[in-house]
Amino acid sequence: MRDILSFLADLHDNNNREWFQANKQRYKEALAKHNANVEQLIAGIASFDSSIEGVTLAQSTYRIYRDTRFSADKTPYKDFFSAFIVRGGKRSGFGGYYLHISPKGNTWGEGSFLAAGNVCPEPYVLRSMREEIEDNAAEMVENIKHSGFILDESNSLKRTPKGFSVAPEYEYLLRKKELCLTRPLTSEWFLDDCWIERTIEAFRRCKPFLDQVNRAIEYAYEEYP
Known about the structure:
This protein has 225 residues and is an alpha+beta fold. The chain is built from eight helices and five strands. It has helices at residues 2-13, 17-22, 24-46, 123-147, 171-174, 188-191, 195-204, 207-223, and strands spanning 81-85, 96-101, 112-118, 150-151, 179-185.
């Protein structure tokens, strides 16, 4: 992992095409190691979450090249490696397990982190998730506690949406515009020889929360195919 962290840190400081072309071999070697790690994560997660069985590397990883057409940030490359391991692949719309490796931080957040959940849901999916909260808010709170992660608070309404009602202590869940758990990491996490096993175990603890989120998403897809 040292080679991956070193490459990403250098890319962060030299995010231009000239540097990238001069270091293309470093990128290829770092990417090959990252892909091998992701394949181990897929297999490890599939061992406790059968919905991940059959998910491929291509369905779980992303290109390093940024689409800058509509962005004020014109740096050409992502300065992080990531993977989203989810039933049906990264475009399925279901909640899944996300790995983000960023030794110097970037616009996605300060440094590396793990996440589990669903982001940017369609309105009908968000409505179904809020209905799930109405019916089973206490279960969701318990699943969040069990995960050892924290609920991402970055995308919330200021008021509880109309048409939904829960006990006051659960209203913060209804105000969420997406349901995602996060766990920040330092680079030291990846320097442990057992970091992949530790990551798999961390994700294992998130499965009850994801099961609940994906149950709501399934209902939404059944109602609005």
